[in-house]
Design goal:
Helix content is 58%, strand content 10%. The strands form two sheets. A five-stranded parallel beta sheet has the order 4-5-6-3-7, sandwiched between helices. Strands 1-2 form a two-stranded antiparallel sheet. The longest helix is centred in the first third of the chain and has 33 residues. By secondary structure, the protein is of the alpha/beta class. It is elongated, with a radius of gyration of 29 Å. It contains 13 helices and seven strands. It has two domains: 114 residues, no CATH class; 184 residues, P-loop containing nucleotide triphosphate hydrolases (Rossmann fold, 3-Layer(aba) Sandwich). It starts with a helix and ends with a helix. Bound molecules: zinc ion. The site of zinc ion (ZN) has 6 residues, from loops.
Length: 318
């Protein structure tokens, strides 16, 4: 994953927004002049300002008086333009390019820094990249089959399905974080992917990944000589981060540091995270540092998955 690549892709997108806004504004001007040819002289007057200024500067005699005269002519032409447009019932900004981002006029930079619109586009591009290998569209809430569960487990899992579906339907700021736990094969990954699929369709930035793969990507980035590639910053900034199969990764100091940093930063900024794990809740603190286990146990809403492995059952049925 190359950050420069993502940056140039996003800048290309912003440039094309700017060109589209400017082309559209030129089209409006041409249409206006086509219908009202008298407007051409006002437009030409305004466009001649820079040329007149250059010639006064080149000439060099009485520059101050020359600039004052050009300024007056320009203000006068601007007034005639406004009056002309208002006479047609049009806003003064009618002929201006209507940029998508009013902060940077679709240049991607504002006050010498990357504009919010560029940052947002980059996060969204990184999310798409990080999700490339995930089978999101294969899992929906509708394809979650409750018939594999029996008795109390079936009742419980229906409640889990309803709860998680509601979480996805009402997702927004302050939705909170969820901890899916229970044995393998009970649908934790399926429901995680269903949440991801639902939210991506609604336009949220979601990153889904296996714990091992996400932590390796961050570790690689931290040790890369090329500097940050945007992986960790995207995992921190996306609207929802889903870490699947926590506990299956090789747990060491580095993976714990990455996990802590991700969940802590996201909790502090009020961003939601879903973590799924096969580790029983009471064993989490034997595997992870207490600062991680306390956050998982007290700041994530626990969602227990119960029943018998539906994948095993499916095999018996076939
Ligand atoms: Zn902008």
């Amino acid at each position: 994953m190359d950050n420069g690549d993502v940056l140039s892709l996003c800048l290309a997108e912003i440039n094309s927004r700017r060109r589209a806004a400017e082309n559209e504004s030129e089209r409006r001007l041409a249409e206006l002049i086509g219908t009202y040819p008298e407007f051409a002289s006002i437009d030409a007057e305004l466009k001649s300002t820079l040329g007149k200024l250059m010639s006064v500067l080149r000439d060099g005699t009485d520059i101050a008086a020359g600039i004052e005269r050009i300024k007056k002519e320009n203000l006068d032409a601007q007034k005639r333009k406004r009056d002309f447009l208002s006479g047609l019932g049009l806003e003064p900004s009618f002929l201006e390019p209507h940029y998508v981002c009013a902060l940077c006029n679709d240049t991607g930079f504002h006050g010498g820094e990357r504009c919010e619109c560029l940052k947002k586009l980059m996060i969204s591009a990184m999310c798409k990249r990080l999700n490339e290998a995930s089978p999101m569209s294969l899992c929906s809430f509708d394809s979650f089959d409750l018939s594999y569960f029996e008795g109390d487990a079936a009742v419980h899992m229906r409640n889990v399905l309803d709860f998680v579906k509601k979480y996805a339907d009402n997702f927004g700021n302050g939705s909170g974080s969820l901890l899916f736990y229970g044995n393998t094969g009970l649908g934790k990954t399926h429901l995680s992917l269903a949440v991801a699929d639902t939210l991506i369709k609604k336009g949220f930035n979601v990153i889904y990944g296996q714990a091992q793969s996400l932590f390796s990507s961050v570790t690689d980035e931290r040790f890369s000589r090329g500097g940050p590639s945007g992986v960790e910053s995207s995992l921190v900034a996306c609207d929802l981060l889903i870490i699947d199969d926590l506990g299956a990764e090789f747990v060491n100091q580095m993976s714990q540091s990455v996990l802590y940093s991700l969940i802590n930063t996201r909790l502090l900024s009020g961003k939601s995270t879903i973590i799924s794990t096969n580790i029983p809740l009471e064993q989490i603190d034997t595997i992870y540092h207490s600062r991680i286990s306390s956050r998982l146990c007290f700041e994530f809403e626990p969602v227990p998955f119960v029943g018998k492995d539906v994948r095993q059952k499916r095999k018996h049925c076939l």
